[in-house]
Here is the input.
Amino acid sequence: MIKALKCAAITEGHVEWTETAATEPATIVEGICMPGFYVAAGKPYRACDITGSFTEIQNPCQRTCAAVAV
Here is the structure.
């Protein structure tokens, strides 16, 4: 029996990534920024390649600025 490869569900780069099937061509995965982080436009994304590895994060999450008391 052949076991299908997957990219494991992880939290990396202040982003939550879901478990994703490894495919060819690579599957594009959108992540969700963790609380206290945001993306100016769109969502963070990366690919899950045929080897079951995530590629580099594109459109990464950035830390939200804290309010400053005056």
